[in-house]
Amino acid sequence: MARRQARAAGGRWLPWLGLALLPLALPPAAAPGGCPSPCYCVATPELVQCRYERLDEPPRELPASVHNLSIAGSNLSVLRRAAFAARPLPDLRLLRLRHDNIQAIEDMALQGLPALRTLDLSHNPLLSVASGAFAGAPLLRTLQLNQALLAAPLEEQLASALRNLSLQRLELAGNELRALPTTLLPAGLEELDLRNNSLQRLAAAELRSLEAPGLRGLRVSLGANPLRCDCALRPLLAWLQSAAARVPDARSLRCAGPPPLRGASLVRLRLEGLGCAASEGGEAGRLETASYVFFGIVLALIGIVFLMVLYLNRRGIKRWLHNLREACRDQMEGYHYRYEQDADPRRASAAGTPGL
């Protein structure tokens, strides 16, 4: 009987216990100013990460106090005007949009992010960047575009978009660049990341652009580029020897060719060790070729002048040659006559019998 009474009492408490545990079993709704439902917040709402949620647009229920926002693996496609302005984010300083299939950035896409200092757009197939794409972030200092310029040539569009910014760091790693993007170097830039591109050399004109008044403190990272250590590398090698502190990874630079120098450390090479045959197209080779061409042109002009003189004096030269031939003939006849006189036997016998 006692057991039956205990079971009955326990049965009466079960519904109340279920109601008490129900809030723990259901996911919490996104409270205003809390973490948005497709994302999660790390430690505090100041760090929000939305990874591989296949979002078509940035989440709108972001906490106003967020400092760092990371969206990765989504399908944002186009960053439209005021894409993050649904709710003011006055404290957002770092925005990472990696692997989000972003192809176009419209004017004022960053409107509403007045404190943004770092923008990471790496690993996106960018096709179009409006001239006012970054105008809504006046404090932007770091722009990361690693492996983001492979789909289309965007140097002119980016140059227009960066014109009014005061960037301090620009990352362009992994974009298969074959030349220094001089139009993307705003005055005041302090760090430029060009690692893992397709640079074989930096020409003298490109290196001179790094000596512009607003870029003399610029540090350039060049690691993992297929540098070809031939005569055309002489300007870069000379620049490295005089400004090694401006290339933080200078000691890691290696020659990708030619075969005799493959794997050699660039900082240990000497200018004399680079082959500078004219066929290699280096500056010394071009100068040598130019000197030979100039010398040949001078000789040709001298030859032409000489032939013109001969042509203009052909009659006098003909007369002179005739007189010279007659003089030679008279001289030869005199020699021949004396030879015949000396060879006459009668003169020889008369000379041998004196007194007759």
TrEMBL record:
Q: Name one GO cellular component term.
A: plasma membrane
Task: Please indicate if the UniProt record lists Transmembrane as a keyword.
Answer: yes
InterPro entries, alphabetically? Cys-rich_flank_reg_C, Leu-rich_rpt, Leu-rich_rpt_typical-subtyp, LRR_dom_sf, Wnt_signaling_inhibitor
Entry-linked Pfam families = LRR_8 (PF13855)
Keyword Secreted among record annotations: no
For this UniProt record, the keywords arranged alphabetically read as follows: Leucine-rich repeat, Membrane, Repeat, Signal, Transmembrane, Transmembrane helix
Membrane-crossing residue ranges in chain numbering: 292-312
Signal sequence residues: 1-31
**Which GO terms of type biological process are on file?**
negative regulation of canonical Wnt signaling pathway
From the UniProt record, list the coiled-coil ranges: none
Superkingdom of origin organism: Eukaryota
Domain LRRCT span(s) in chain numbering: 225-277
The protein depicted here goes by the name: LRRCT domain-containing protein
